[in-house]
Please model this.
Amino acid sequence: MVEVVPKLVVDGLTKRFASTEALSRIDTEVKAGEFISIVGPSGCGKTTFLRIVSGLEQATTGEIRLDGAAVTRPGSDRGFVFQQDNLLPWLTIMDNAMIGPEIGGFASPERRRATQALLKLVGLEGFERHYPRQLSGGMRQRVNLARALAIDPEILLMDEPFSALDAQTREIMQTELLRIWEEGRKTVLFVTHQIDEAVFLSDRVFVFARRPGRLQEIIDIDLPRPRPLSIKRTPAFIALVDRIWTLIEHEVRASVMEELA
Amino acid sequence: MTVNLSVATSSDGAGLRASPVLLRPFARLSRVGWSLGSVIGGFALWEIASRFLIANKLFLAAPSQIVMAIVALFERGQLMRHIAASASEFVLGYLAASVAGILIGILLANSTVAKQVLQPWISGLYATPTIALAPLFILWLGIGISSKVVMVVTLVVFPVIINTEAGLRTTPNELVEMVRCFGASRRQVFLRVALPSALPFIFAGLKLGIGRGLIGVVVAELFGSRAGVGQIISQAADAFNMPQLFAGVIILAVAGVGLTAAFGWLEGRLLHWKD
Ligand SMILES: Nc1ncnc2c1ncn2[C@@H]1O[C@H](COP(=O)(O)OP(=O)(O)O)[C@@H](O)[C@H]1O
Ligand SMILES: [Mg+2]
Model:
């Protein structure tokens, strides 16, 4: 058997902000096409980790390698889906989705057609010429996703992308995301604070801990795919959610108490 | 499993604004109606007051007399000459101040040193009623067009600088990060995010500049000029010709209202993405 070359290698990654140690010595690998979720109490460095992978933030020590090359700055091989949709209000939905190719200088007519198809894929056909203010939160978040996919990235970085949505829209977006992912099989790093969301979506869940921020444990999610929403009521699913919750419960409580103090 | 997309989009499609379409025309009609009534009523009261209450012709002129004064100026070929003189002073000064103000605002937003060096002067001069410099400009530059242009620039440039700088400085950081994430250079961040997001501020500064610029033109003309709406007014005052004096004022009012309305229209076109 040929050994699978990892898509992403995290090698001795540490990040310090002045006195806080946001991330402490993370070593791990992610295979091509894997869907990884990252969970952990707030302040454990999930966002910082994604930002370093994206190249927005520099590692203090250690490095990230994507397809063997060290990441030093943002690039079109990584697509970021933000917690807030961050759409440019003065651009149409189509132009918002095309911002990556425009900035990168590869906004060809073919790319526009591909982006058009992506907007259709996320359910926004017919809204290309609308402006962001005309769309609901759920629709804007779909544009956020299409915008990241429009550069055809090697890896998709998603930071709590559904946290601002109501519960129903959120569940729909989860199944939509899985459907889109099944089509393209991009590598995904998905940060969430909802454990059931992590279990539902992922091949593996990275459980982070705080003080200092670190990768505490990796949980394999061996549920069959494709996964219908009803899988959330199966004993296997519930057992996985329980297991992860037990891992972080103590820390989450600590962080909540701290925020109250 | 397939997900019913139409359910998804229509549920969050509820965010599309619904408004009481049927009621809109009436609301609008009554709004316009009240305002129009107010203006017409105001002029009628003015007419009555100046005909019957205030007999002194040196005190007030009736709207009908003002209209006749405007017509007379027009027939003598004076009106267009004066308006053209004032308009060219305003346009030259306003355009120069707009371009300079935006450029200086950009400089201040991008250089801390420039900001620290220039800020005290800009804040100071903005707060000063620099209109008081009009006689000085006329002594320096004569009674021709240049003294008026300089006066207009002095009055218009500061609100434009201040608003441009404020608009650029308040660029939402998360939008900057978003484009940086797609590999945007400093230049691209400026052109694609900072400048468009500052546009409403810049527009507000330019709008403030309209009224200030008109004041600059007229006041500078009052202190000395060969032609212009300010000169209509000062000549009329010297001759105690109230209808002509008010004619000058009305022309200015129309110019101010017209320019502001045109600006509002342009703003609506360019900033339609705002709610
Ligand atoms: N730019 C920054 N400057 C200083 N401290 C930061 C910065 N960004 C994050 N931190 C700190 O790093 C830690 C991890 O933050 P973050 O990655 O946002 O956590 P999470 O996303 O898991 O909630 C927190 O203690 C936070 O205060
Ligand atoms: Mg976070």
The pocket of magnesium ion (ligand 2) is lined by residues A 46-47 (CB under 6 Å). Chain B is about 80% helix and 0% strand.
